[in-house]
Amino acid sequence: MAERITMSSEGALQVPDEPIVPFIRGDGIGVDIWPAAQRVLDTAAAKHGHRVAWKEVLAGQTAFDETGTWLPEETVSTFADYLIGIKGPLTTPVGGGIRSLNVALRQVLDLYVCLRPVRWFQGVPSPVRHPEKVDMVIFRENTEDVYAGLEVQEGTPEAKKLITFLHDEMGWSVRPDSGVGIKPVSETGSKRLIRAAVNYAVARGRRSVTLVHKGNIQKFTEGAFRSWGYELVREEFADVAVAWEDCGGDPGGRVLVQDTIADITLQQVLTRPDEFDVIATTNLNGDYLSDALAAQVGGIGIAPGGNINYVSGHGIFEATHGTAPRYAGQDKVNPGSLLLSGVLMFEHLGWQAAADDIVRAMEATFAERIVTYDFARLTEGATEVKTSEFASAIVDRL
Ligand code: NAP
Questions:
Q1: Which of 90, 104, 176, 238 is deepest in the core (most CB within 10 A)?
Q2: Residue 228 pLDDT
């Protein structure tokens, strides 16, 4: 019987055998990648005695065409009620009241973690020599930093007012022809993000959590993020994790918590990827880092993501690329990003065996060089297949 996923009083997800999971098919290539991903997810789930009762909800262009709104209230309340959902890419309305539908969903449900695992799958073309050394999980803060939307435009009365205030009250001199943005980074926001990262590292037996920040320059935002991270580890995780400076780099059996500056990190994830494991970082750093890292292991056509609130239990897993409108309806693009987001969702639900099976079948497909156009152009001797055929190849190997 189809049932809701719920949260126990101890804060653990309670997942029935047939959970109701809302999904947004997505605009543009959503029509191609959603059915492909769903077929693989359903096959793997069935193999392990599970079934997903999919419940379609609307957002984006499809919602606008049918209802006149980009993000219907019913969609938001369905995600709120059923806790866990998944979505394809959405068109960002140009000149509408909503900055981005993705941002809106994250804000309404307070999905404070953007989870982006980055690992290489055998057979995937990569621009680096040792993509197999890349196995990182990025926890990007999802609600604050320069993404808080606190910006004023150059030349407006608001900008003038803010610049005058900064001059008169703080003694700060800002050029009068400036646009000005505010970057809030809170103790609450930082600690809940880092707590999620350390919990993940402990639960999954990962070696380390690296706090990535720009604290050498932005001391009271990025620097504070780092300090709060170490404080949290000492306060809440002393038995299972330890800060570098408290153990001289020798954590014993515990998770090592260390930190690096954002700019050098972007270099080191390329030159020494095996030194990074779980990464916890602020919003903007995480944005750059996750795309840069995805490039090492096959690009955005295959990069999965999830937006999660570990306290309320809400989570929306999503393809990390856009709607690629010029390929829409051609049964051509790579469904990997959405499919692996589904795999991430299965892992989050505790369906590890089904998730592992999909990864294994996908690797077997890549190993035979059966790929969509994006990988075909980078793979010698590839057999280029359509989106649906790629899904069939995975299903055949499940
Ligand atoms: P995009 O849709 O991500 O597409 C950019 C390029 O990435 C494509 O031309 C294609 O490259 C490659 N690509 C994307 N998805 C792929 C897939 N599944 N398989 C293979 N290659 C893939 O970015 P965009 O063109 O800048 O944005 C289009 C729309 O999407 C905009 O409305 C934007 O606002 C929206 N958007 C939505 C999200 C979201 O919902 N999460 C995220 C980003 C953008 P090649 O042509 O080189 O093969």
A1: 90
A2: 98
